[in-house]
């Protein structure tokens, strides 16, 4: 099973549990949280295939999803930075409509990108990494829009 994600393509990344999207703050251009979808460029991400995994780059300001220099530990915030961080995109499952989901994983670690507070759907819920478990708050859809 593989992920159906193309290199150099634009996506909105949607949390399976909350249906909120990965949003890079337009205020500080650094904080990353779950937010209701509005299709702004701060919610659009370009996936770039590189050796060992993927870069995930914000379309709005060119920042990359990263750990901001921190090591892979529980509750480390995911942020936007100039660091070309490499992620693994691991297939997870298919939903009832046949849409493939995946986990965004720290290489050589069991840590996954996690919509915190067990997938709280409230706008502004922080996104961090946590050790992998079966929670749908660690599972993501990469939705490509024909308008991108």
UniProtKB/TrEMBL annotation:
Pfam families: RicinB_lectin_2 (PF14200). Coiled coil: none annotated. Residues 41-130 form the Ricin B lectin domain. InterPro entries: Ricin_B-like_lectins, Ricin_B_lectin. This is Ricin B lectin domain-containing protein. It comes from Psilocybe cyanescens. The lineage of its organism: Eukaryota, Fungi, Dikarya, Basidiomycota, Agaricomycotina.
